[in-house]
Amino acid sequence: MTIGTEDKIEIHELAARTYIALDGEDAAGFAATFAQDGVFVAPYGEFQGPEAVQTFITSHIAAGKEDGVRHILSNHVVDAHEDGARYRFYIVKMNIQTGPVAIATAGGDCIVSRTADGWRFKRFQLNIDPAMFGDQKPVVAAKAA
Questions:
Q1: pLDDT by residue (tens digit) across 44-84?
Q2: How many structural domains comprise the chain?
Q3: What is this structure's pTM?
Q4: Which of 4, 35, 97, 102 is the most buried (most CB within 10 A)?
């Protein structure tokens, strides 16, 4: 499969929409970026299909893991892959309520496929950098009153 410029733009926007949804505490919007057989793999577990992804993200948000934060994506690389495209990028999670200060970094290593609804994640491997889980890990901000 050839990956053209239009495809790359759509794939970049897929990740942007995913994290704009998360920053807006929109679990359904986050889950909508996954193919029906798509899987989200993170240190928290493996979640198969949009419904399972939405259930996880809903509980993740309810636990306060996304309070007062914004995600910034960079270093986008899209390569052809037998299932569509391999898409890699970096993520910086910022505390914007009391910061701005970076509170976590990660990398996405994903397989995306073209569906009837456009490009969607077939496999989203979230590799959170070790400092997020250390003794001195930063905390997310309290919700604004």
A1: 899 999 999 999 999 999 999 999 999 999 999 999 999 99
A2: 1
A3: 0.88
A4: 35
